[in-house]
Every structure is written in C-alpha cells, then in structure tokens.
Amino acid sequence: MPLYNILCVAAHYPEIAPIRELLKTTTQIINNGGGLIKNVDYWGTQTLPNKMIRHQQIYDKGDYIHMSFLASPPLLKNVNNLLKLDPRVIRWQTTKEKM
C-alpha cells in the first residue's frame, strides 16, 4: 500500500468538537478499509491567505490538519469523497509519498 499525505483546511469553530468528529470519521474510514494511519498533526487555527468559499459559506480562518497514512487507491478515493462532501472541510490536498 502506498503512503499518502493529506493536508486539510477545516472550517474554524469556537469549540474543537467538530474537528474531533472530522478526524474520528476520517480515521474510521481508513482503519475500516484496511489502511494504517502513521501520523496526525493538528497545526492549529490560521488566517487563510485569501477568503475561501465552500458550501456557500465564506471563510477567512481555518484549522490545519496533516495526516499520513497507508491506503489502497480505492480506499483513498473513499477518503477524498468524504472530504469533498463534508461541510466542515474548506480545502484539502492529497499527495502520494515517493518510496
């Protein structure tokens, strides 16, 4: 299985519960699909370089999360579909690590 990295910018909320739920949902999909999570880093809340529009809302702050995991390509597609549909996610980028 290839090693993937996801950098996710989530909508900022006053409480941390929505971010925990997003991480819980994502990690469950990876673990249930036979993947292995290597590392999860929460980089904190940052002002976005530009205002971003997602799900008909405008955001100027976001919570940055980095995750490294092993997964099959079909599992990666499921994770990307989850992030695309989740209203807590503003932007994300997936990269494949070279071995």
From TrEMBL:
One of its GO terms (molecular function) is structural constituent of ribosome. PANTHER family: MITOCHONDRIAL 28S RIBOSOMAL PROTEIN S6, SMALL RIBOSOMAL SUBUNIT PROTEIN BS6M. It comes from the Eukaryota. Belongs to the bacterial ribosomal protein bS6 family. The lineage of its organism: Eukaryota, Fungi, Dikarya, Basidiomycota, Wallemiomycotina. This is Ribosomal protein S6. InterPro entries: Ribosomal_bS6, Ribosomal_bS6_sf, Transl_elong_EF1B/ribsomal_bS6. One of its GO terms (biological process) is translation. GO terms for cellular component: mitochondrial small ribosomal subunit.
